[in-house]
Write a structure and sequence with these properties.
Elements: H1 6-19, H2 22-39, H3 41-44, H4 47-68, H5 79-90, H6 95-116, H7 127-161, H8 163-177, H9 184-190, E1 197-205, H10 212-225, E2 232-235, E3 240-247, H11 260-264, E4 268-272, E5 276-277, H12 278-298, E6 305-307, H13 308-317, H14 321-332, H15 340-355, H16 358-365, H17 369-383, H18 391-404
Parallel strand pairs: 4-6
Antiparallel strand pairs: 1-3, 1-4, 1-5, 2-3
Protein name: PucR family transcriptional regulator
Organism: Nocardioides albus
InterPro entries: CdaR-like_regulators, CdaR_GGDEF, PucR_C-HTH_dom, PucR_C-HTH_sf, RsbRD_N_dom
């Protein structure tokens, strides 16, 4: 810090103090991440990569602000920044993607600092002097960060190209891209019967306290509940694994939801594809599991286990949240309140539209059949039409609410 300029020194201390406030950090991270994601759609389309970016931006900004008021420049790379580089390497992306992230960040940070140095009520040294000092430190920080992350990226890539892990990853990628013939030899190399029924799943860390061994443990628990041998796992990123169960007959996945209670307290989440036969099922069930995973990571009310069959309609309309919420308000607006009784009406109506059987709904919800009838009648009264009309739209709207909550314009 420039000790020969008390005015600039005071400004820097006030700047760092203000910038480290929770809302100020959130503003910075939102601004920088939005700019980066707009330039790198391959990261924007991957929920966990986007989360890794968010954590990297947040941690680096805090570390930089602590450094900028220090007597001497020093660079400390937070672990979250390394996690983003490792995830990009594990996804098989080029180093160029990582460099584009920091080229974009370089421009965005400069624009942000230019804006902030014009704001009051921070003490006022010469604006240009303050901007030049902070920007020079930021530029040096980004240069040092890129140098360290290039090393991190290549170290992770080296791990992937060595040994059995690389062979397995290459075979799995080839099967998914249909560039590898699903022979008996490939099944033997993977330790996974490709001609059996395949159930794809994604298992990931929804909490930063989860360890790799927890993901592997719960993946094994999933296999046992489904009556399958040890699952085939593929390291897809820093916080997620792609997996497959192979069974000689279609597996009974009803018991998988029994894992929900343990998963709730663990920070681990699972999305499931539908069981399908053979190599084609290997690809298709995986695609479904990833689609369910994308919806689950965006949802605010998602359960610990998300089955593609339960969110398929949402997966099919994924891509324009505003249009979906508009449809929700149009179709089931009177059911969108936050009242507990309305929540019960929504839950019962969705269960009925799914099962079409009063007895089954009553058993599933642990209520009397007359209670089911009352709630369904209440739903029809509020909607103004029988549930048999526009049933597909009503079901889709209620499934959206079950995961994302009522749209803000419809809650009361």
């Amino acid at each position: 810090m420039p000790q020969d300029n008390p005015e600039l020194e005071a400004w820097l201390e006030e700047f760092a103090r203000e910038a480290l406030r929770g809302d100020a950090v959130e503003r910075f991270v939102r601004y920088v991440d939005a700019g980066i994601l707009a330039q790198l759609p391959q990261i924007a389309a991957d929920p966990l990569l986007a989360q890794d970016l968010d954590q990297s931006t947040d941690s680096q900004w805090r570390a930089f602000l602590e450094m900028v008021v220090a007597d001497d420049y020093h660079h400390h790379l937070p672990s979250q920044a390394g996690n983003l580089a490792r995830s990009l390497a594990r996804r098989g992306m080029d180093l160029g993607v990582l460099l584009k992230v920091y080229r974009a960040a370089h421009q965005l940070v400069f624009a942000y600092l230019s804006e902030v140095t014009q704001e009051e009520p921070l003490p006022r040294p010469g604006r240009d002097e303050a901007l030049v000092f902070v920007w020079s430190r930021a530029g040096q920080w980004i240069d040092d960060t890129i140098e360290k992350l290039i090393e991190t990226f290549y170290a992770e890539r080296q791990l992937l190209v060595e040994g059995a892990l690389a062979r397995r990853a290459s075979l799995i990628d080839g099967l998914l891209q249909e560039t590898v013939e699903p022979t008996e030899r490939v099944s033997a190399d993977l330790g996974h019967q490709l001609d059996h029924w395949q159930t794809g799943f994604v298992i990931w860390q929804a909490s930063s306290v989860v360890h790799d061994r927890d993901l592997e443990t719960f993946a094994g628990d999933l296999a046992r509940v489904a009556g399958a041998p040890s699952p085939l796992l593929h390291v897809a990123g820093h916080r997620d694994r792609w997996g497959w169960l192979a069974t000689s007959t279609p597996p009974d996945l009803a018991g998988v939801h029994k894992l929900s209670e343990r998963l709730s307290g663990s920070g681990v989440r699972i999305s499931l594809g539908t069981p399908q036969r053979g190599p084609e099922g290997f690809r298709q069930s995986h695609q479904e599991a990833r689609a369910a995973h994308k919806v689950a990571t965006a949802a605010v009310l998602a359960p610990p286990v998300v089955d593609y069959q339960e969110v398929e309609l949402l997966c099919l309309v994924d891509g324009n949240r505003a249009l979906v919420e508009r449809m929700v308000l149009r179709e089931v607006g009177p059911l969108c309140g936050a009242d507990k009784n309305l929540a019960q009406v929504r839950q019962t109506t969705l269960a009925f539209l799914t099962q079409r059987n009063l007895d089954a709904v009553a058993d599933a919800l642990f209520v009397h059949k007359n209670t089911v009838r009352y709630r369904l009648a209440k739903a029809e009264e509020l909607l103004g039409h029988p549930l048999s009309e526009r049933a597909a739209y009503v079901e889709l709207a209620l499934r959206h609410i079950a995961l994302f909550g009522p749209p803000a314009d419809g809650a009361s």
